[in-house]
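Two quick folds needed for the group meeting slides. Do the first one here.
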Amino acid sequence: HNEIEGSLNEIRIVSTNQFDSYTYYEFTDTDPTPIQIKQWFGKKGAVYFLKADDTSFSENNIFINIKSYELPILKDNYEVNKYWTGSVSPKVTFSGNGSSGTLPFKVDYSGVNYYKGAVVLKGINYSNVIKTKLNITINANGQITNSSEENWFAENIGIIKTITINNGTEVEKNIDSYALN
């Protein structure tokens, strides 16, 4: 466990789901965020994806819905320092105050495997780890948000650590439990 800004942040793998016949692992996060988004990670071939569920929230009496989307967070067949880039544009709808419609929403990403090798984390030796970094730019109706996420993947285990940086604030999270309830 890591103490970050007085709060304990950990990730737990809580269930599995099938999407297009691929197994995805749902995880929960103890980090309090204003909008809770159900998330999974899964592997298709050599690519690991982070999948965000449909998300709905209300802001100033406007109801907003963002459709599910996924981003490639690791390409285990890529060598160190080889980049992948792309973008997704999930559908975003709004309604309220007598109007409704869609909003432009685009997520641009650039990822890289920046380390392959051994790691010691919380006293445990992992012999085959790939560390990735994903830079993300979200353009939500002209409002730009930049963030980055590092993920450490241990062979035959999955994600063992993440580091997220949003607006200059860094939050480190370790996998606490893989127990499926």
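Then this one, please, same format:
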Amino acid sequence: MITAVNISHHYQNDIALRGTTLHITKGEFVAIVGESGSGKSTLLSILSTLLTPTDGGVIFLGQRVRKIKDIDSFRKENIGFIFQFHYLIDYLTVKENLKIANEQVEETRILALTKRLGIEKLLHKYPNEISGGERQRVAIVRALINNPKVIFADEPTGNLDSKNSLIVFELLQQLSEEGTTIIVTTHNKKLAQFADTIYEVKDGQL
């Protein structure tokens, strides 16, 4: 599904990633672990098409990422993103935040997904009226709205307590079992055990 071939990346004189090759299959749950500054977020950004590597390339669903003409449409059709910070818009309700991902989404899908994460009663509340764990679950639903083939999650539990962190990783594991490819970065090696495959990045190397 995703193949990275000898990818490297540097920011001016700082080498963030060097000579990395890996292959991720459909439905695989991959955890990328490493300390802050190790290069794991750079690797995730490259795999998810958000960053073009300095050297090497990525093949995503059979297409060379550098040659995809409409990358925004490609992302919208195939990828869901979850970040450490939920990036919800404060002046929009939970439901309105969800519809930003897809204005045409059916009400039944919104209800089904929010029920699955136990936040169906929060649809008409605003982000500042709900807890941090609830906001992150809203962000996960937003990532799932378009039924993506791949979900990329960059430190999705970085701001959550242990209970909510467990809920998030259990859900990601379930989605993987249902056929969605999951690629997540985390500094928590215990949570990484939910994954099928664990890669450790250290000093820019896998």
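Slide caption for protein two: The chain has a mean pLDDT of 91.
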